[in-house]
Amino acid sequence: MAQVSPARRVAYEVLRRVHGGGFSDALLLDMARPLAARDAGLAHEIVYGVLRHQNQLDWLAQHFSGRQILTVDEPTAILLRMGIYQMRYLTKIPPHAAVMEAVELAKRASKRAAAGLVNAVLRKVHKKELKFPDPAIELCLPEWLYRRWLQHYGKEQTRLIAKSFMQAPEKVNRAGYRMDSGAQTIVPLLDPKPGQSFLDLCAAPGNKTRQAVDLGVKAIACDRSFKRLLPLQQIGIPLVHLDAAAPLPFRRPFDCVLADAPCSGTGTLGRNPEIKWRLTPEDLLRQQARQIGILKHGLEAVAPGGTLVYSTCSLEKEENEDVVRAVCGESSETAIPMHYRIPGRDPGDGFFAAVIHKPA
């Protein structure tokens, strides 16, 4: 029986579970942990490469096979994507290794009929340049999202955003934790001063709270998932289990309030590429009512003269300007400073932030 490297075995299992609804970052953290550093690196490269380029890989599979990849079962589609990604996008992978191990994985998945298809298709794969049929496939975006960004951002900006999401995102090490360089720009918008009170309404996993504590504030961290807040106990931050979309339980107001609301995450597609294949246009309004509630109740917790920052890692106006307008009125667009960090133009993930000052 042919051998399958630990890297490809883990990559296949992670991609299979992502198709079932899992998230690549958590799955890789768990499943690649026992691997040697080299194997773990290859597993990460294959998983993220396949997810970032998924519709492009599906088109290539159709090109080399003459059939729609969506007509085969998902395990077979995953193996074809893995093989094509290694053979066309990775320079140090011997083609025969990618083919042989994909075929063996198909056999181990009890897909012996599929093994023949995988072998036949992958043996036709070459590295000659091919012209993709449309910009959405060239830029590895769902058609609806490409057209949406084209309308909102224009052709060149959309291309920059999409190209940035095809690359591994940069992380910056801070004391004891790692944080995206774009995410690091949100807390400073509050201009927190040492000794001020700071409320983080949607704090998990706590990196922005830690950043604020590094600036000397007295912080309280809240979230609907208390479990995800628990690592903050290590640095002595008071934790509160609550739903920030509901009225808040605090009797005293805060100098600084951060409302980093849950959202679609379209600013993080380089880090969480599976999102773009799961998201639908209807999803952009799914959390808007919660986002409006979070901003509304967060503003009630701001002390006179204090500041609230409403932020998301979304590039979509329904989760950003529209939420601020719904809570603060139609004039808010000119009266309230609003900032976008655009991937490809700005380092790190994409973010939106509105800075709201409460009169003294």
- Termini separation comes to 75 Å
Helix and strand run: HHHHHHHHHHEEEHEHEEHHEHHEE
Q: How many extended strands?
A: 9
Q: Which regions contain 5 or more consecutive residues with pLDDT less than 50? A: none
Q: What is the molecular shape?
A: elongated
Biggest sheet, open or closed, and with what strands and sense? Answer: 7 strands, mixed
Helix/strand-derived category reads alpha/beta
CATH class of the largest domain: Alpha Beta
Q: Calculate the mean pLDDT score and round it.
A: 94
| Order of neighbouring strands in the sheet with most strands | 5-4-3-6-7-9-8
Number of helices: 16
What brief labels describe this structure?
N-utilizing Substance Protein B Homolog, Chain A, 14% strand, single chain, alpha/beta, 360 residues, elongated, two-stranded antiparallel ribbon, 16 helices, 7-stranded mixed sheet, 9 strands
Structural description of this entry:
- The protein has 360 residues and is α/β, with parallel strands linked by helices.
- The protein has 3 domains: 6-133, N-utilizing Substance Protein B Homolog, Chain A; 135-167, no CATH class; 170-357, 3-Layer(aba) Sandwich (Rossmann fold), CATH 3.40.50.150.
- Helix content is 44%, strand content 14%.
- The chain contains 16 helices and 9 strands.
- The protein has helices spanning 6-19, 24-31, 37-52, 54-65, 74-89, 95-108, 112-122, 135-138, 143-153, 155-165, 207-214, 226-229, 274-278, 288-300, 321-328, 332-335, and strands at 171-174, 177-180, 197-200, 218-223, 239-241, 254-260, 302-312, 338-341, 351-357.
- The strands form 2 sheets. A 7-stranded mixed sheet has the order 5-4-3-6-7-9-8. It has a two-stranded antiparallel sheet with strand order 1-2.
- Helix 5 packs antiparallel against helix 6 (95-108) and helix 9 (143-153) crosses helix 10 (155-165).
- The chain is elongated.
- The chain starts with 5 loop residues before the first helix and ends with a strand.
